[in-house]
Design brief:
Elements lengths: L10 H6 L81 E4 L5 H9 L3 E4 L6 H8 L4 E4 L7 H6 L5 E4 L9 H6 L3 E3 L6 H16 L2 H9 L17 E5 L3 H12 L3 E5 L11 E2 L3 H7 L2 E4 L13 H6 L4 E5 L8 H10 L2 E6 L23 E3 L8 H21 L23 E8 L4 H9 L3 E10 L2 E9 L3 H12 L4 E7 L1
Parallel strand pairs: 1-2, 1-3, 3-4, 4-5, 6-7, 6-9, 7-8, 9-10, 10-11, 11-12
Antiparallel strand pairs: 13-15, 13-16, 14-15
The structure holds 1,4-dihydronicotinamide adenine dinucleotide (NAI) and 2-oxo-3-(phosphonooxy)propanoic acid.
């Protein structure tokens, strides 16, 4: 999928791209956006760049599909008039699709992607930026978790990248806008680890309330210190939730079942679950809560959301929990409030700077603060969550690579079509383009002499995405459609699937 340049490609850029098929049906380097001959048809003669040999597939667990065979493991998708079978789209040899999975992405994902015949390279850790820049150069898809930063600089090094999978909830580690401008869709797992985070927070509420971290530390040092002063039941206490999304609302239900009163603050009005109540401002929430827990995404608005002013607003001896993002809390202000006793304890799972890998040194002003639980970003780290995330994100990636479906993308217009007719000479056009007036007319003109079975397009910010299924096209016409669409001045990425 060489996924095209960030700005609409110039004619010379287009000329460099291999836009003509190989007679040998070996996939060109730009495997995901360059049409070859449809199955069962003879390929037109080639005049373009010589097609490179297919790369080795040593990292692929399964035997790759040979060119011209169907992609395995794909479901048929519903029926439609005139044909009972949905076509399995295969415009490229799946063995030529290179996928880089970092940060110990779950085995469920590795298996699902290898089952497609893709080449999958896995790494247990995040990569240093220079290594990442080298590795990302020729991959079509990268899978990451919360640690890998896909900055503009890294994305600009990725010559063929078409899709990113964040095998987690947060997507703040990716420059989403820049990715979109290059036609790179980003998928995440919006709720597969929410329950794991909510359960951890429930545990932390009890642990903080009973000063369990400190008692445990003392016991490991051989110190017996039985105290009840400032230790409380959580029943009847007030939990203040900041950010009432998937995690916050799940937590709300669990906390009420433990006998807590729940209030929440969110930037949008939301239906309170159980008997919880939304309050009008953050300050109001801070003033009434015995426990404050943060479940907001990292955005410009949430950076340093909890600093000295907010900590002072919190009740004397109340507790703070942060399992959202490290940048949401000013660490020095929190350390000061803990040491002064104004804040009775804190549980912190996320930090502004987190070590790159297990075994690396962790440094924080919070080390040694009283009744302070520090955990290494494990909110979503359960077997259940990781396995579900692996399945969910890998399916989204497969659907995008094989079918062009962008449903669930966080930075991209969400577009899907009913299954394409199971006919040799039907194709699916996937066109990512600049969201400016006049584009649809131009595409309609290109497709004017063809039978467009169905078409859908949507936009998000500066980019738009169109999918169209076209029947009764010859291999020469496929080349012509591909060439003319990809040469439009608004083109970001054009793919033809068949
Ligand atoms: N510690 C860990 O391992 C994990 C951490 N997370 C973090 O938790 C965050 C929240 O996750 P979800 O609940 O799934 O997200 P979500 O998107 O479902 O909910 C976030 C809520 O925060 C609200 N919000 C946004 N800006 C706000 C502001 N300035 N003030 C008040 N409310 C605001 C939104 O309206 C939304 O209701 C993620 O973005 C991620 O960064 C998620 C999973 C695991
Ligand atoms: O899902 C998230 O946003 C998380 O913070 C979990 O990140 P992780 O997959 O543990 O790197």
């Amino acid at each position: 999928m060489s996924f095209a340049p960030s700005s609409p490609p110039s004619v010379s850029q287009q000329q460099r791209a291999p836009t003509t098929p190989s007679t040998a049906r070996v996939m060109p380097t730009n495997v995901m956006n360059t049409p070859t001959a449809p199955q069962g048809t003879s390929a037109p003669s080639t005049t373009g760049a010589a097609a490179p040999a297919a790369p080795s597939t040593t990292s692929s667990a399964n035997a790759p599909n040979t060119p011209g065979t169907e992609i395995r493991g794909r479901e048929r998708q519903g029926s439609f008039g005139g044909s009972t079978r949905a076509k399995v789209l295969k415009p490229f040899n799946t063995a030529n699709i290179k996928i880089l999975l970092l940060e110990n992405v779950n085995e469920t994902a590795v298996r699902a992607l290898r089952d497609q015949g893709y080449q999958v390279e896995t790494h247990a850790k995040a990569l240093a930026e220079d290594v990442l820049i080298e590795k990302i150069k020729d991959v079509h898809c990268v899978g990451i978790r919360s640690k890998t930063k896909l900055t503009k600089k890294v994305l600009d090094a990725a010559e063929k990248l078409g899709v990113i999978g964040c095998f987690c909830i947060g997507t703040n580690q990716v420059d989403l806008e820049h990715a979109a401008s290059k036609g790179i869709a980003v998928f995440n797992s919006p709720f597969s680890n929410s329950r794991s985070v909510a359960e951890l927070v429930i545990a932390e509420i009890v642990l903080l309330s009973r000063q369990l971290g400190d008692r445990n530390n003392e016991m490991h040092q051989g110190i017996w210190s039985k105290v009840s002063a400032n230790c409380y039941e959580i029943r009847g206490k007030t939990l203040g939730i900041v950010g009432y999304g998937h995690i916050g609302s799940q937590l709300s239900v669990l906390a009420e079942s433990m006998g807590m009163r729940v209030y929440f603050h969110d930037v949008v009005p939301l239906m309170p679950l159980g008997t919880s109540k939304q309050v009008g401002s953050l300050d109001e929430l801070l003033e009434i809560s015995d426990f404050v827990t943060l479940h907001v995404p990292e955005t410009e608005d949430t950076k340093n959301m909890i600093g000295e002013h907010e900590l002072n607003k919190m009740k004397q001896g109340s507790f703070l929990i942060n399992a959202s993002r490290g940048t949401v809390v000013q660490i020095s202000a929190l350390a000061k409030a803990l040491r002064s006793g104004h804040i009775g304890g804190a549980a912190v799972d996320v930090f502004p700077k987190e070590p790159a890998a297990n075994g690396k040194f962790f440094e924080s002003e919070l080390i040694g603060c009283p009744n302070t639980l520090l955990t290494p970003h494990i909110g979503g780290s359960t077997e259940e969550a990781q396995s579900m995330i692996g399945v969910e994100v890998s399916q989204a990636l497969i659907k995008f690579i094989n079918n062009g479906t962008s449903i669930g993308a966080v930075n991209f217009p969400e577009v899907d079509l009913r299954a394409i007719r199971d006919e040799e000479n039907s194709i699916r056009l996937c066109y990512t383009h600049a969201n400016v007036p006049g584009v649809l007319l131009r595409i309609t003109n290109i497709l004017a002499d063809h039978n467009v079975d169905k078409q859908f397009s949507d936009s998000k910010g500066k980019i738009a995405y169109l999918m169209a299924d076209i029947s009764d096209v010859t291999p020469e016409q496929i080349q012509d459609i591909y060439r003319r669409v990809s040469e439009t001045p608004t083109n970001i990425v054009t793919r033809v699937l068949y």
